[in-house]
Amino acid sequence: MRSFFTTKTLIIAGLAALVALGAGCPANTNVNVNANADNTNSNINSNEGESNSDTNSTSSMIEANEPDEYEGVVTIGIQTSGETTQKMPTLQAKVARDGENRRMELSMPNGEKLIYLTVGADQYVIAPARKQFAKLDEQALGFEVRKLLMPDQIVSQVKALEGVKRAGEEKFNGRDVVRYTFESEAETNSSAGEVETASFVLVDKETNLPLRSVIEMESKGGNVGGVSKIMTVTEIKDLKTEVDDAMFKKPEGYDEVTPEEVRAQVQTFLVAAQAIVGQLMQSAQNPTPTPSGNSNTDR
After folding, report:
1. CA pair distance 77, 145, nearest whole angstrom
2. DSSP helix/strand/coil, 84
């Protein structure tokens, strides 16, 4: 599988691990980014929504939770700058939950769909265009991809941030949200050197889902592969609070294949996604940085 890795992928994956370190998140931290940000201002600013309050208050943790029923679209990407500029194509997944049942639909580069379906204790990966499915366990194809893209994992990671500040309420995509901000500094003991991180999270007041999170990380005097600055963004959009039961039906009339057969069909996509997750899991061995005492939440 190693032959599928490119230099670009490895650089991005290494930076993703540094993002997790800078943000103080645990091992399976999601890397959240919009790679189509050609016109993105590198500074995190408060004009992401219409702010209704600029009152700041310290909060021990972000008040985020996953509702029992919802559907939406999760997008992930990375934008870097420095001597070398790298971009990762935006990852996008349609996600849904109804109690214990979960569904994640990915669009492959060739236009085909790949569906991860959890119905009770059973897990499947489904290739609708090929009328094929495979049963999964935690060791099988793509389990780590779910950790990267499913909102329950996103919620877990933003709740792990300590030393955040509640920075007021505003509108985002027409929904009422609460803004939380966080800043930290960390010595990575690597070529990146000292890393400063600034981030914010917008949490939906109705569902308690984190609708947008932004992490801006900058190495002071160091770099990884010529990259010294990285912005990551995660969004949950097109949010609905009711779902269709038909979304969680087990595959019928499809041929059952092995997970390895499905892997061969979507190898390029999964290698890129799993490379990022693997690097993030390794970051668990790194020390958690101390939140900056001079946090500026007017970003």
Report:
1. 14
2. coil
